[in-house]
Design brief:
- The complex is a heterodimer of chains A (349) and B (111).
- With 349 residues, chain A is α/β, with parallel strands linked by helices.
- Chain A folds into 2 domains: 130 residues, 3-Layer(aba) Sandwich (Rossmann fold); 200 residues, 2-Layer Sandwich (Alpha-Beta Plaits), CATH 3.30.70.1230.
- In chain A, 45% of the residues lie in helices and 26% in strands.
- Chain A is built from 11 helices and 13 strands.
- The longest helix of chain A has 28 residues.
- The radius of gyration of chain A is 27 Å and the shape is elongated.
- The N and C termini of chain A lie far apart (68 Å).
- With 111 residues, chain B is mainly α.
- Helices cover 81% and strands 0% of the residues of chain B.
- Chain B contains 5 helices and no strands.
- Classes of the chains: A alpha/beta (349), B mainly alpha (111).
- Chains A and B meet through α1 of A and α1, α2 and α3 of B.
Chain lengths: 349, 111
Amino acid sequence: MRFAHEPGNLLIVDDNKVNRILLARGLQQDGHKVEVAENGRLGLEKLRAGSFDLVLLDIEMPEMNGYQVLETCLQEPELRDIPIIMTSSLDEIDSVVKCVELGAEDYLNKPVNPILLRARVNASLEKKRLRDEQRKLFRTFATKEVADELLKSGFSLGGKYVNASVMFADIRSYTTYTENEDPTEIIELLNDYFALMFDAITSYHGTVNQMAGDGLMAIFGAPIHRDDHCEQAVRAALEMIELLEGFNQERAAMNKTQIKIGIGIASGRVIAGYTGTQHRATYTCVGDTVNLAARLEAQTKVIGEPILIESATRMAMGDGFKVKSHGPIQLKGKTVEVEVFSVLIGQKV
Amino acid sequence: MSVIDKAAFDELKQMSGADFINELIDAFLDDAPHMISEMQAALATNDVESFRRNAHSLKSNANTFGALELAVLAKELEFMGKENNLDIGNRLEVLNEALGKVAEELKGMRA
């Protein structure tokens, strides 16, 4: 038999043996791994001890009923994300409504129709896989506090306007460098470099949301709003340069090529949200502010200063920094000139 | 006279497969008498909750096998339990008798 879907680890909680067999056999035939529990209390014990992708939960049970199990699961961080499908007879519709309102994923009427059973189980497993992947992806990109906050508040997939600071960073002369270096060396360098940059960005509450080659994009002030996102972004940039100095000294001692980076920061309204497909999603920002940050980063090559910002960031970042004005500059892709400033290194207060 | 609805039973058999209809029937024949004795015990100790839950379970299984009359009798008792009314007259004996007929017929329907 061929399985149309990825198998999952399922738990069936039902005090009725006929129902347990009826549910279990069909799902086992579909390739799922199935465990059963005879009442709510035992079900909860199995849930806490094991690792399940989905629960089929009866409502009427001795010791602990389905309603109590559902409530307990929703309160426990380790169990909260396991989808629960309520199984009930038609005349329990009031309880079912209550369960779905409370947070049950779906419901099935007993006697269970096997086609509906498969469809609901596979749909729920698929949804869980997508959520798991989003979370995993998110944990690699975001700070722990941001990830925790988002996991707590739930994922909003729709885009919205937010005020944020956007940072682009890139290695200077990366192309010439890669032409002369051993591939293993290059990957090693990139890994060390990204580790340092992530450290600096996350310690100032930023979220790295894109990496491409040697470049990265980070957001400050979103997905969780902070009033001081401009200041945090600039402090992160200074920290990045400082960390890179130490990194270069180490490389110089080992007779390896040293690297320089350029950083552009712009602040303002951006459209933020999750983008991607059903299988790959990431938190990202788009809009003029994002384009401007990218242009400023490119402009560091022309001006020869490592950190460039525009007036919005300069005005909001506070007095703790020394800056130098480079006047209004016509940036590529911009219709009006933009006032550009460099943030001076070693001048942070 | 048949006490099992042929259409409902055939549907169950079709979705469960011939092999496993026997396992289902055996599970029911095992469990159902327990449910009735649990109801009897609940009646003696005035445990309305257990009485109602066991009636509910029996009703649910009766529906699964197409034992429609048994399901109606069990549902009536479940309802009385819900209403906190254990003044059930001879309904439990009637239920037990109905279960006997259903069990007899199901035994003959094993594949």
